[in-house]
Amino acid sequence: MIRVKHPLEYELRPDTLQKGTHWLTLWLKNIGELPLHNLNVTIHSTDSHQISFRKWSDFIMRIEYGEEKYLPFEADIHGPAALYITIRYYKEGGSFHWESPWIRQKVVGDVAELESILVSNPYGNIGRELEIEATIKGLGNSDELDLELWADTPSGQYEELARIKTKRLSPGEEASYITKITPKEEGYYAIYATLYDKLQRLGRESDTVWVEK
Q1: How far apart are CA 97 and CA 90, in angstroms?
Q2: What confidence tens digit (pLDDT) does each residue in 170-186 have?
Q3: How far apart are CA 28 and CA 210, in angstroms?
Q4: How many CA atoms lie within 13 A of 134 on its CB side?
């Protein structure tokens, strides 16, 4: 899918990956009115356990208006993750920073993905219960999967919230699972959900909540 964030059109290919060591290609096109100079291009993974890069940066000396460039990046791929691109460049007027939104990459062979985790309210109070909902989507015919939910508390303690055996999922089927937390401390809580197929990690998502007295 070609995406647009001024002054660039961009596409990361392929959008569905095979497990193993493979090359990804970033296509860039200058759609701004001015040429861009000295572009330092870096690709990042939001989950380096799933996708990590052996070659994660490249350099473009100059890209004119309407000109296209192709950059290769070598990656070790174990499972799905979101990727994003950052670019530092120069044009008339000074130095600029460009950053893409997250690009979610799927991996062939995974039976399910962890779509999201959501805390019922981004703000909470000590002693008042909050709901946490994790949503899973089937990509193949899965057996029961293991869903683990944890909280990183303001004091630095890692608190287990739930271990859930999920239902069997068919391709395209979604299932949501809810657990609850009653905060005991003031500050930021980070809530994590991790999905496993036996020993294989299929995904990890997180959300945060600010707790007051």
Answers
A1: 9
A2: 999 999 999 999 999 99
A3: 39
A4: 26
Q: Can you point out the beta strands (E) in 64-171?
A: 68-77, 81-91, 94-99, 103-107, 112-119, 123-125, 130-138, 146-152, 158-165
CATH of 3-107, one of 2.60.40.10, 3.30.230.10, 2.50.20.10, 1.10.1200.10: 2.60.40.10
CATH number of 112-212: 2.60.40.10
Tens-digit pLDDT profile for residues 116-148: 999 999 999 999 999 999 999 998 888 899 999
Token couple for 147: 């869903």
CB-side neighbour CA atoms (13 Å) of 112: 31
